[in-house]
Design brief:
The complex is a heterodimer of chains A (120) and B (449).
Chain A: H1 5-22, E1 25-26, H2 27-37, H3 49-58, E2 62-68, E3 74-80, H4 82-119
Chain B: H1 5-19, H2 26-45, H3 50-61, H4 64-74, H5 92-121, H6 125-148, H7 152-171, H8 179-200, H9 208-246, H10 251-277, H11 284-309, H12 318-340, H13 350-380, H14 384-411, H15 417-445
Classes of the chains: A alpha+beta (120), B mainly alpha (449).
């Protein structure tokens, strides 16, 4: 199943912040984690991750540090900041509200449908 | 050949392509490259070959235009190219940038000390003027020697002419207020500047490309030096005015200490700025040349009309001839600068026609000047000043004639722009040789008058 583009964009920030809350990572590893978590359903355009990370850095939600990879290449590692954790908590609340509302809607729309099936 | 040479070459080409994007900084390219290589390694692990893995990784990275637009949205400031003199971060790059800054400042102060010491040492104003270039040049050359890691042989080609020039300028018994001494003082900087060029190109002075780079550097240096001078003048004027209001006389300090250090020091700093910013404001050169080429054509036409209506050439004032020489040299600098700023692959256009008009107008002025000079020489006999001016005008005539000829060829599509460029760069040393003749040969011939 492919997830709609707008939905991917809307969930990108909390997803990245949430992944970084588990521990420091670099860009490619973040994308791999996203793919794992969504069972391959959420496919980002890889290049778009970096402008997003830079925006989060400018907002002070993450900080970055240049390190070296095993192969000896320059690699930028990202760490979530306290402000980032606050933002994450805030987003979590918002998403909980949205998810809760959606679940209720699914139930009410699915409910009658299931009932009709039952009568048939 | 390494097993993944083709892959490395592909990644290199991709890097080059991405780097051209102004919104994506070199550090971002490093980050993206790391990503690309990780992706490729993962694809290879699943059994794809180099080429397939590269294609998949590039595809996954997404449309570069869209990605760079996203970068630009986040970093709109980058579209205004920023000058990073000392990059942040604990990298080697930053350490070497700080070292360079230290070297530049030390050399700038050194040039100031040299000028200050020179003004104390030479009590005669004319002798100081002859030596001013000699005092500043070593510091500028030292900067490039350090930056380009000049070999001993190149350093020798700089030091030997420099020493010879220093000897000639100081050992010759120039008559006080004589014209040969004045001519030597005026022509010595030309030689020193071309020597700076040898240092600038790291000894590759035979290369046309290197010479063109030096022309570009000279133009940018003039722009930067002017900007520094303007800023400095504003600061000095404000300081002077406020101190005067308080009742402190700043004038002696300004003349004795601030200017002797600031004027030569700014030259070294400007050279460093041009080196550091190369790509940052490269676009100023085409703008300036496009503004000033038509204006200069208009100025030359006005001058021609005035000269033509002024009557006999013999009566033309001597000062006017000197002024006109200065104007022609300036026109030549503008021509060189605009040629250096032009994209050599672009087809001939309106601006090239305008440039040809500039050359032709300059040729006309030069012809008038030559006639006037010959008339004066026939009337009053020759003097060192007249011969020096005559020589310069003949050099300019040859330079401009050939430049006009080549420009016509280029406009008609018979010649590549490279031919125009080559002529300009090949002719430059001729001016150095002429300046050397004026400095070294003229004084003995004319008896140091």
């Amino acid at each position: 199943m492919r997830i709609d583009k707008d939905l991917v964009a809307a969930s990108a920030t909390p997803l990245v912040l949430g992944i970084l809350a588990e521990g420091d990572l670099y860009g490619y590893a973040i994308l791999k984690r996203v793919s794992e978590l969504s069972g391959g359903g959420m496919q980002w355009t890889d290049g778009m991750l970096y402008p997003l990370l830079h925006r989060l850095e400018r907002l002070g939600y993450v900080s970055s540090l240049w390190g070296t990879s095993d192969a000896g290449r320059r690699r930028k590692h990202y760490t979530i900041t306290p402000a980032g954790r606050d933002a994450l908590a805030d987003r979590q609340e918002q998403w909980t509200v949205v998810a809760d509302a959606l679940r209720q809607v699914w139930q009410t729309t699915q409910g009658p449908a299931a009932a009709t099936e039952g009568w048939a | 050949m390494t097993p993944h040479a083709e892959l490395e070459a592909q990644i290199d080409r991709w890097r080059g392509y991405v780097q051209r994007n102004r919104a994506i900084s070199p550090a971002d390219v490093d980050e993206l490259e790391d990503h690309l290589r990780e992706q490729i390694a993962d694809r290879q692990a699943t059994g794809l070959d180099d080429e397939e893995a590269f294609l998949v990784a590039i595809k996954r990275l997404g449309n570069l235009d869209a990605v760079s637009r996203e970068f630009a949205r986040e970093h709109s400031d980058r579209l205004w190219k920023q000058l990073v003199l000392v990059p942040a971060g604990p990298d080697d790059a930053s350490a070497s940038a700080w070292r360079e800054l230290a070297v530049v400042l030390a050399l700038a102060v050194g040039a100031g000390v040299a000028v200050k010491a020179g003004s104390a040492w030479f009590d005669d104003g004319a002798a100081l003027m002859r030596n001013l270039g000699l005092l500043v040049f070593p510091f500028l050359a030292a900067y490039f020697a350090w930056k380009r890691r000049l070999t001993g042989a190149v350093a020798a080609t700089l030091i030997v002419p420099f020493a010879a020039l220093a000897v000639a300028l100081n050992v010759y018994p120039f008559a006080p207020a004589g014209s040969t001494g004045m001519l030597a003082a005026l022509h010595a900087p030309v030689i020193l500047w071309l020597l700076t060029g040898v240092a600038y190109v790291g000894g590759r002075w035979r290369s046309d490309k290197g010479r063109m780079d030096f022309v570009r550097f000279t133009g940018e240096l003039a722009v930067y030096y002017t900007l520094l001078a303007l800023g400095g003048a504003v600061l000095i004027a404000l300081t002077l005015a406020s101190l005067r209001a308080i009742g402190v006389d700043f004038q002696p300090v300004l003349e004795d200490w601030v200017l002797p250090f600031a004027v030569p020091g700014a030259l070294v700093v400007a050279a460093w700025l041009v080196e550091a910013k190369q790509q940052v404001v490269e676009n100023i050169a085409p703008v300036l040349t496009r503004v000033f080429t038509p204006l200069t054509v208009a100025m030359l036409l006005v001058l021609l009309t005035v000269l033509a209506t002024a009557g006999g050439f013999v009566d033309i004032d001597r000062n006017l001839l000197i002024l006109m020489d200065a104007i022609l040299v300036l026109v030549l600098c503008l021509l060189l600068y605009s040629i250096s700023a032009r994209d050599p692959l672009a087809p001939p256009g309106l601006f090239d026609a305008l440039q040809l008009a500039l050359v032709i107008a300059a040729l006309a002025v030069d012809a008038v000047m030559l006639t006037a000079m010959l008339a004066r020489i026939a009337e009053f006999g020759y003097s060192p000043n007249k011969i020096a001016a005559l020589g310069l005008n003949l050099l300019l005539l040859v330079h401009l004639l050939r430049a006009a000829w080549l420009a016509v060829g280029f406009l008609r599509g018979r010649l590549p722009f490279a031919a125009v460029e080559r002529w300009q760069t090949r002719y430059l040393p001729v001016y150095g040789a002429w300046a050397a003749v004026v400095v070294v040969v003229f004084p003995p011939i004319f008896g140091f008058i």
